[in-house]
C-alpha cells in the first residue's frame, strides 16, 4: 500500500496524543493536581469522545460534519467504527489506573507506542516491501529503532522521568521494551476469529506490564 496524504495527516494528528502521557506524568507536578484528578479528566475525555462517536453513528448530519472535519485522517474502517484516537484515550485511562503509582511507566509506554506506531506506518507504507500480514518488516524495524533511540537518547534527559529507576535504565531492558512494542504493534491481537483488540488500546497496556514486571529482572 503506497503512502498516502491521508496516512501522513493521520500520523501527524496522532502526535497530538502525546499530550496524554504528558498529562499523566507532568500535570500533577505542574498544576498540583492529584493522580485521581488525572484519571477523572481522562475519563471525562473518553466519555466525551465516545459520545461524539455515537452521535455521528446515529445522526447522518452529525456524521457529515465529522467527516468534513476529519475525512482526511480517517481510515475506511473508522468511518463506521470507533476511531484510533478514542481507543488511545481509553488506553491512557487504563494505564493511568493500572500504573497509578508508577506514572513514568504510563508515560513511557504511551509515548513509545505513539511515536513507534507512526514510524511503522509511514516507513512501512512509504518504502516497505517485505509484507508481514497487513504490515511490513521495514515498518517494524523503524518502530523498533525509533523506540530504542527515544528510550535511550531522550528519556534520560526528561526531568524526573527516570528518577524511580535511578536516572537511567540498562540497554537490554530498553531493547526488550522496544521489541515488545514492535511485536505487539505488528501482530493483530485476535480474541476470536471476528474480534481483534485495537492496537491503540492494547499495546501501551501490554508494554506497561512488561516494564513493570521485567525491570526488577535487570
Describe the 3D structure.
- This protein has helices spanning 5-14, 19-31, 35-58, 60-70, 84-98, 103-127, 137-153, 171-186, 199-214; strands spanning 131-132, 135-136, 189-190, 196-197.
- The chain is mainly alpha-helical and 218 residues long.
- It has one domain.
- It has a two-stranded antiparallel ribbon with strand order 1-2. It has a two-stranded antiparallel ribbon with strand order 3-4.
- It is globular, with a radius of gyration of 18 Å.
- The protein starts with a helix and ends with a helix.
User: Structural class given helices, strands, pairing?
Assistant: mainly alpha
Give, in spatial order, the strands making up the sheet with the most strands. Answer: 1-2
Biggest sheet descriptor: 2 strands, antiparallel
How would you describe the shape? globular
What is the count of helical runs? 9
Characteristic key phrases:
single chain, 218 residues, mainly alpha, two-stranded antiparallel ribbon, 67% helix, globular
Task: Describe the structure concisely.
This protein is mainly alpha-helical and 218 residues long. Helices cover 67% and strands 4% of the residues.
